[in-house]
Amino acid sequence: MYTRETLFVNEKGHLSVGGADCADLAKEFSTPLYVFDEAHIRAMMRAFKGALDEYGGGGRVLYASKAFCCEAMYRIADGEGLGADVVSEGELYTALRAGFPAERLYMHGNNKLPQEIRAGLDAGIGCFVLDSREEACRIEAEAAQRGIKQKVLIRINPGVEAHTHRFVQTATPDSKFGFSVANGEAAAMTAFVRTLAHLDLAGYHCHIGSQIFERRSFEIAVQKCVAFMAEMKKSQELICRELDLGGGFGIWYAEGDRALPPQGYREELSAIGKEVERACEQAGLPLPFLLMEPGRAIVGEAGLTLYTVGSVKETAHRTYLTVDGGMFENPRYCLYEAKYTAVLAERASEAPQRTYAIAGKCCESGDLIGLGFRLPETKAGDLIAVLSTGAYHYSMASNYNRNRIPPAVLVKDGKAEYIIRPQTPEDLVRFDTIPSRLKP
Ligand code: LLP
After folding, report:
1. 158: CA distance to ligand 1 center in Å?
2. How far, in Å, are 18, 19, 40, 307, 344 from residue 4 at the CA level?
3. Which residue, 138, 144, 390, 411, is most buried by CB atoms nearer than 10 A?
4. pLDDT tens for each residue of 295-320
5. Are residue 317 and residue 238 in the same domain, yes or no?
């Protein structure tokens, strides 16, 4: 198992996270439970920030809210001096309610709704990342009405094939995101946006995909973006002041994935900054302010999920452990066949003896946390920790089968507090309404 200063097996053989024993957390807060290690979140934010501090043109880390969005996360990001990327009115609302400074918010989305655009402008967000002409026109009209000039970036598709699951690849030639550099759309959009008097085109954004390990993919993206910036300078006399390289930095989930401490990330990211410096110098361009938008790398490894085993069932092909969670709180196996590591939280130092499939409690055969988990002999009542569940778990959870989305606690120096409170049965019927003719 991969360990770190705030995630290890303690002297009792229990899994300890953020200074707290997972068995105690399960007792105090019950299961299923999302647990977040604040020290690791902060360490990762500082790693990204440190790398950008080394870059000559200045920069900012934008936490990609979609990975895990709640008010406490924005408090942490604000405290660390980060900006954030938001992709909906809901994320924007959460950030503002948490007191996050609007000018450090960048709004994404390939179909921002008119009310989302208005909400962003009303709040005074720092920047919109444009993904369609229609949207540029809508922002232009709203900005004109307000008598302001709104900073925007254009999302470009540099056409980089990153090695990751096809559903999370975003810069392939037929992606729905961005304007293709190769077919001239990005250049045409640049010319178009510059005709709009209330938009200030500061530069470009690209995001090549998610869960990417190869530094090379990012370096190629940098080279393609800088080449495009040079072309825009030559043909349209546009000086790109900001370059946003998106997110997508891979994390450790299971054996075979690279495990990098925060310092390792810092080194990898510094190399990307160096590549921007090198490419810009070669192209004779001034260094743009550099943005990065990590989501998974900030919160992924910082999170784990605690479950209680409800039953053990032998079938012809495998032994299932059924837990009190499932696809309603972790849809990633169903969506991407994502791989995880499971640990018996109270017998974490025992050698694995058997291979188990871990199934959820939803009424679907495909409702799995995964197959092929190596664990000691496990029985009903045992406590299981699934690691690296901080990103895209709570944020993609649902109330499928009217299961309650688990609460989340934030742990620091052994002290745990709710950051997402437990749902109640009343929460599940909060939006239901019965037409009067059907009332009992
Ligand atoms: N910036 C943009 C424009 C993005 O679209 C994304 C992720 C990010 C930043 C953050 O990427 P990260 O650093 O977290 O990889 N639900 C999938 C992941 C979808 C990612 C979507 N965009 C999963 O569970 O793997």
Report:
1. 17
2. 10, 11, 9, 22, 18
3. 390
4. 999 999 999 999 999 999 999 999 99
5. no
69 and 168 together in one domain:
yes
- Report the catalytic residues: 363
In a domain, 2, yes or no: no
279 and 239 together in one domain: yes
**Distance of CA 170 from the midpoint of ligand 1 (Å):** 9
Q: Specify the ligand 1 atom closest to the Cα of 129.
A: 3
Is 251 contained in some domain? yes
CB of 295 within 6 A of ligand 1: the answer is: yes
73: in domain: yes
How many independent structural domains does the chain possess? 2
The pLDDT tens digits of the residues spanning 105-119 come to 999 999 999 999 999
How far is the C-alpha of 138 from the C-alpha of 49, rounded, in Å? 33
Least Cα distance to 175 among 155, 154, 195 occurs for 155
246 lines ligand 1 (CB under 6 A): yes
The answer on 21 and 57 residing in a single domain is: no
- Report whether residue 32 contacts ligand 1, using a CB cutoff of 6 Å: no
282 shares its domain with 318: no
Q: Whose CA is nearest to atom 16 of ligand 1?
A: 392
How much distance in Å is there from the Cα of 292 to the middle of ligand 1?
A: 12
Mention every residue, 6+ apart, whose C-beta is less than 8 A from residue 327.
333, 334, 360, 362, 364, 366, 367, 368, 400
Is 1 within the bounds of a domain? no
Would the CB of 210 count as within 6 Å of ligand 1?
Answer: yes
